[in-house]
Amino acid sequence: MQIQGYFDLQFEAVKDAFAALFDDPQARGAALCVQVGGETVLDLWAGSADKEGAQAWQSDTLVNLFSCTKAFAAVAALQLVGEGKLELDAPVARYWPEFAASGKERVTLRQLLSHRAGLPALRELLPAEALYDWSAMTAALAAEQPWWTPGEAHGYAAITYGWLVGELLRRVDGRGPGESIVARTARPLELDFHVGLADSEFHRVSDVSRGKGNFGDAAAQRLIKAMMTEPTSMTTRAFANPPSIMTSTNKPEWRRMQQPAANGHGNARALAGFYSGLLDGRLLEAELLNEMTREHSVGDDLTLLTRTRFGLGCMLDQPEVANGTYGLGPKAFGHPGAGGSIGFADPEREVAFGFVTNTLGPYVLMDPRAQRLAVAVKACLA
């Protein structure tokens, strides 16, 4: 497999680890970007962007980043907190009056961002097309009763996070949630990152598909079992209501919509650049970054059925949990996306890391491919 791009010789072992990913006959395309102290030490890509293997992955290939998008949404919201337009501990209903229904009058932005609001899913099954109807989804969430007492537990809001946080952005920032996020994060840093992709960019997007025959770790198997055997459970509803959530990622209407939980499109360079921008203070004041990266939720996740640890819109490191560590340092923070893409920062080593792939793995938190690359980076820094 021919590896394209640039690497600093100090990090040749990381380049070799990246190349080794393609020893898997199912591996199609991937990219890796690592910045240390704001300097790019690796910017690599390889493989194919299409399912047939006819189209090579390019320097500017985009891919659906899934939940990596959540951290960008959180930063946009925290910037509005810094501007005095949102408050972390004010009721969401102050900005979105309809949200007060069904016992949610005291739910706060802090609880939304840390997955403590009790709204990871909708009970009533919605039609597939509701996925693309912003007002239908936000109205359903405004009416929904929390699945637990808000603030007393946490459960990952895999997709509802996008409508919940996005509706606040829309109401307070006066523009579409994707427009707000891109204007506040990507544009100032000149990142090739999109939430609501223009049709003119579709030719750059790699189709994603699942690898076959790998059932993942114990956490992934628990999740799959729950979804197969408990159709009305909160976990199943979180990922399959509307039922189109699981089957839409390569569709034009998915790419066009602004769903800031899961449909950001970008590349490894955009992820690394975003986390460099957080580390060097260009995106958030230190006080707000500290708030974002401080532990808000830890322990049994009622949605993911595994142990998770969250700040505000970011996943924090769990060094003692095999599928819960970024593999660099205990202060690392960032966000994985379904199937293997990941962006994160390790402030102790000033590392910003972005990895993207179009060959989706079956893991719930961190993908072992990205973890192996991060461990290789750590070894090169020693």
UniProtKB/TrEMBL annotation:
Domain of life of the organism encoding this protein: Bacteria
Domain Beta-lactamase-related: 16-374
Family annotation (Pfam families): Beta-lactamase
Listed InterPro entries: Beta-lactam-related (IPR001466), Beta-lactam/transpept-like (IPR012338), Beta-lactamase/esterase (IPR052907)
Organism per entry: Zestomonas insulae
Protein name, as recorded: Beta-lactamase family protein
Gene3D superfamilies: DD-peptidase/beta-lactamase superfamily (3.40.710.10)
